[in-house]
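Example (one chain per record):
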Amino acid sequence: MRSDPVDTRLGARLAELRAEHGWSLGELADRSGVSRSTLSRAERAEISPTASLLNRLCAVYGRTMSQLLSEVEAEPPPVLRAADQPVWQDRASGFVRRSVSPPHSALRGELVEARLSPGADIAYDRPPVTGLEQHIWVLEGALDVTAQDTEHHLGAGDCLRMRVWGPTRFRCAAPDGVRYLLAVVRP
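Predicted structure:
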C-alpha cells in the first residue's frame, strides 16, 4: 500500500518535532496519551492519522492543527485559490477539513471549512492550544457542539464563539451532513 504524499510529509514532520524536543517515542506517548506503536506508525506514514490523534499531538507541541498541516506544505502565498486550498480528511470519523486561509506562523487567525458526515461524532480530550478562540458558523445542516459541559445546537446561519479550555465534542445533527466555517484565533 502506498501512503498518501501528505501523510508521508506529515509523518516526517511529526518525527522532526519529536526529535526537536529530544523525546523518545515512549516520552511522547506518555505526554500525549497515544500508544508508542501508533506514534511510530504515524511517523512512518503507515497509517493516516485521525483528527483526534493530530489534536493530541498538537496539544503536546502547542500548535493548532492548521499550523501543523501548513508546516508540511510550501510557504503559502498571500492569496490561496480555491483549487489550491489543502484538504485533509479523517475517513474514520467522516471529517473533511479545508484550510481556506493561507496559514502563516506569524499570524494568529485562520479560516477553515469543515464538513461532517451524517452521524459523525468527534470528541477532543483537550484543545490543541489552551485558550484557543473559535468561531463556528454553520453554513448548511446542523451541528451540536459541547464545550465546558455546555451543549450548543447550531442550525444554518448560527454562529458560536468560544474559548477552548478543555474537552470539546462536535456531532453532526443533520441527516445530510453539516458544513461550517471555523475561524480560529490563537491566544
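Caption: The two ends are 40 Å apart (CA to CA).
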